[in-house]
User: Fold these one by one.
Assistant:
Number 1:
Amino acid sequence: MTLGRLNHVGVATPSIEASVETYRNLLGATAIGEPFDLPDQGVRVCFVDAPNTQVELIQPLDEASPIAGFLKKSPAGGQHHLCFEVPDIHVAVADLVAKGARVLGAPRIGAHGTPIVFVHPRDFGGLLIELMETPRDGSH
Amino acid sequence: MTLGRLNHVGVATPSIEASVETYRNLLGATAIGEPFDLPDQGVRVCFVDAPNTQVELIQPLDEASPIAGFLKKSPAGGQHHLCFEVPDIHVAVADLVAKGARVLGAPRIGAHGTPIVFVHPRDFGGLLIELMETPRDGSH
């Protein structure tokens, strides 16, 4: 495995609408996607484009959402995860498991429509790392 | 101001050496800079290159370092800040101040040799945002 591009930084927020306004007003973000729900993951997400990567704003859909737990500790929101691209999710998972890292669950389809997995923060210096298979159409 | 490229993600760590090994071993990072001290900011830093951006590993130089405080709350380390590039730091600061955002101190020279400032997390959804003037030689 070779370190791939940072597809996005995941940012937890109690309000996508308020966060979008902050990125627009304070930093001049203009390329902002439509928010959409990922019910399987209990979240609503919205991508804000920087020229070289994206910020994924993540709002809990309900109290059972892992993001709801995050916001209990940090009510204003904050950085939640880093997502790096990999060419093949199954190769990446096998590699990580062989090295003793804890991969959280089986690959599932993520916000960009390609398979993703998360690596346990205890195996990555306190950071929650998402690995995402690069979309074949080159979009991100 | 228009949202600029994400120059780097700042990551606090109790040990740059251990973090570098994690990025190398688990994610296959190969482009890893030499660690260096920023004594004015009380930190030692090391940049790990992804194809489109960088991870800035930040280790406290002493107990007075703001990163030491961060690690008291999150001993394993974690995401610390997001750094976006701006063409002119003074224009960016004037714009933010005019919009009522709290800019932390005057611009100072950052890890890439160009002026930086930080924006208060309370004005940015719990995220610590660094703004950094784009290096004129195009390096990053």
Number 2:
Amino acid sequence: MEEIKLLGTAASSFVNRVQFVLNLKSIEYKFIEENLACKSDLLLASNPVLKKIPILLKANEPPICESLIIIEYLEEIKPDIHPILPPKPSDRAKNRFWANYIDNKFFPLYLELSYAHEREIVKDKIIKESQLLEEVFVKFSNGKAYFGGDEVGYLDVVLGCFLGWTKFHEKRHDFKVFDEVRTPKLAEWVKRILSHKAITGVMPQEDILMDYYMMRLK
Amino acid sequence: MEEIKLLGTAASSFVNRVQFVLNLKSIEYKFIEENLACKSDLLLASNPVLKKIPILLKANEPPICESLIIIEYLEEIKPDIHPILPPKPSDRAKNRFWANYIDNKFFPLYLELSYAHEREIVKDKIIKESQLLEEVFVKFSNGKAYFGGDEVGYLDVVLGCFLGWTKFHEKRHDFKVFDEVRTPKLAEWVKRILSHKAITGVMPQEDILMDYYMMRLK
């Protein structure tokens, strides 16, 4: 099989989600760790416009950039091995809608938390969002284990890969996002997704997150 | 055929791109004009999370929101009539990458232009971006008429529907974005796309844009 390379850093949720899907689809790949403080020539040549990771490189193909685009690409080249999007167009649209929501509304609150003066206000916003995500989970999972139903799907990947950072911020800012009382279904889901074999080895440990956090704050 | 409704406003490029694809795919629809200063109950019930247009409503289906997601949805329900995405996964990924780029980097500069104190700086940025888009056009079109080649494709829709606003800002701020010297290929493309039969009747006239602009500035 032709070699696939993934340029990224182990601490990035956006990179982790690509790794998760590569594992789900049993696609072998070589991980190339990037130093974002000093980006490699390969990174700059592969994504000259955004200069961002993740980047997927496949022989004789142009580089594929941006996590959600890479995931759609992997789904298209390997549609039969662990499909992560449902077959029905309206269900696919709903998955994409909530993925955008998580990326553009939920995740940015954590960035806000790092810089905010009024941290309690941001924490309250995150808690409110987590309760909305609980409702989304209840609808999508329909009593089953994952957003994707019986199997890990698109939103399990998108939200699941962010859990390392969720826990990091919970500890640092002394609060809990997905808890047994407010978001009981998601609290169970967190345990389930973190023990999934395709994500084990992908989720970064706390020391890696701390290094990344300190570099970003500089 | 079951009825399709589109909630939007005639002045929105994001709504226009859905109309363009509906026309390309010969899908009949009923347009429901929204007053964004006083959003309808139907809008709020259909997209309670973002409260934004465009929204596509199809009988017995959940509402589909966000322009790029709606376009993918239309492509999936009518894949054989005027496909706008190419069949090869890496080409599809490239289309999605540049659509995101246009939405997240190019369009926001026009918003910046409306509010900026230092307008000349923003104008220079827009000019620089237009030259990058000229390069993208040359690569995608490969000597043919459109980003999509011989036929209107995804990026023709995404960028094409913004041309009403481009011209509006050009006139208001006395500069030219796509011109014969700096961006000769795109300058030709502008004329070609604006005379395409599927976009005629969709592109808003200047008075509609002015009303919208004044409402947004309030």
